[in-house]
Amino acid sequence: MDTQALRKKYLDFFVARGHAAIPSASLVPENDPTTLFTGSGMQPLLPYLLGERHPKGTRLTDSQKSFRAEDIEEVGDNRHTTFFEMLGNWSLGDYFKQEQLPWFFEFLTKEVGLDPNKLYVTVFDGAEDIGVPRDEESIEIWRRLFGETGISNGFQEVGSEENGYKKGMEDGARIFSYDAKKNWWSRSGVPDNMPVGEPGGPDSEVFYDFETEHDSSWGEHCHPNCDCGRFLEIGNSVFMEYTKTGKGFEKLAQKNVDFGGGLERIAAASANESDMFLAVDSLSNVIKHLEEASNKYYKDDLKSFRIIADHLRGAVFMISDGVRPSNTEQGYFARRLLRRSVQYADTLGIQEGTLVEAVAIITDTYKDHYPELEERRTEIERAVGDEEARFRATLKRGLSKLEKVMLKHEGEVGNQKEFEKAIPANEVFEVITSDGFPKELVAEILEEHGTKTEWKEVEALILEHKAKSRAGAEQKFKGGLADHSNATTQLHTAHHLLLKALQIVLGGHVKQRGSNITGERLRIDFSHHEKLSDEQKAEVERIVNDQIQAKLPVLKTTLPRREAEALGAEQEFGQKYPDIVNVYSIGPAGASPDDPRLDESFSLEFCGGPHVSNTGEIQGVFRIKKEKASSAEVRRIRGVLE
Ligand code: SER
Description:
By secondary structure, the chain is α+β, with helices and mostly antiparallel strands. It contains 20 helices and 21 strands.
């Protein structure tokens, strides 16, 4: 069964059981600045799990486009992909375990036709510290379902993953209980990591057994959660009925089911094919095309074929959702995917133009369910083609530099011209850093020409270079704020007020992209696509000055990063924060260090300070002096206190 047919079968199955089919949300999350991409089905539905009414009712089903940037480097084995579709069915305070588990079981065994003998399931073992017991109800349901098919239905308590590797699987065991690391689901993982207000709950996963040999480098014995490749998780029913509060875990107002199933993983199980790149039509079609274009076989260079197929598909979906290759945010990932594709296409000896042809194959595969691909076909092909051309120009410049360097180190050996045994590391480093010429390529070219370089030294130079540019950036930042003069501190607090005012007037898409403060003026770069009108500028000034006049307390609070994120605190773009962070809040009136009332503040930002302790200390009236474009989609404002 191809994945397009499988998706339809799943949606139809749940529509027949009273669900409304809803379209996938965009890969670029709306109103959620904490993540660059939608990475699971529940992200866009969060408000409804928390109690907001969904216009389509309490039973929903969908297939959500998802992208996990953190997996880019993992692509190359038989299962990792950056883009995937998550099948979902949702009970928003409607049905619960008694319906969910039998339905999913029926779907897998009757509709997809999987042999129940090849299915193993896990449930939550319970956790005393949060007062949630073992999920006996799910155990009973699974025992009944497997029992009815006449096969073994034993239960085995596992607990931790380590225990699983130690004990292995008992004879006849079908249902296994694991601790919260494996069978509790929330956006932030285990209960300990959840911020206050976050929903979560026990889950029950279904695994497909490919019956491959256990690889003991993972652990002594195999068990459903073993990573050796024998078992593949194909679906997860989350019973989302808890939320974390200041005092521990409490039940949500409604019991929800959040089911997420990997469309392609179910396809792989249905084909009994553990290689996702062969089991999934959109990937295998691209691979076939690449085989023809390169005159090479997939099996001879699995990694290159897999990377190109995965990356191109991810880029196509991103571009169809409005992302364009660039150096920032989502665009950075689109660029990275495409440049890696070109690089591996070169490894396979594939001609320019082949990738754009592969884009057409991807579009054709998906266009019925995702009409945005067809609607933007030309745009997508152009974006991919342009990026390939740009990258190839970079490669060409790098290559000619490298050739010059090599020629410098050519000598006569006997009557023959030959390159010296090694090219100096600093010259290789120059080629790599000046143009962004990929290291791996340099290594290959040197090898082809029978020479090499001292790579350890090159790496050291690259690290040093990175450290220097980072220090430079910190210096620049300090340039404003290391100067703790009174005037600078006042402008720094005004800067926080200004960012918030811009968001109020222009919209939530406004994010800080850069800043610089001296004793005379502040400067902020922020994301916005057009010039501000005089009215908008006046409104922004008015909001800032109102907060100054309101004499609001300015407080510094230290708290876990996740809590700060959950409160929606502004982060500096591109910054990685430690687990414990400082935030500065401005307002509300009456807030104090003992009771900072962060959720009611006017402005809340990740920040090290310093700031005035009350906006009333800001002297003068805030004025915007200049407003102009700083780069595409980024505006720059200079402001002063007069
Ligand atoms: N939220 C769960 C997951 O992403 C199930 O949809 O795995």
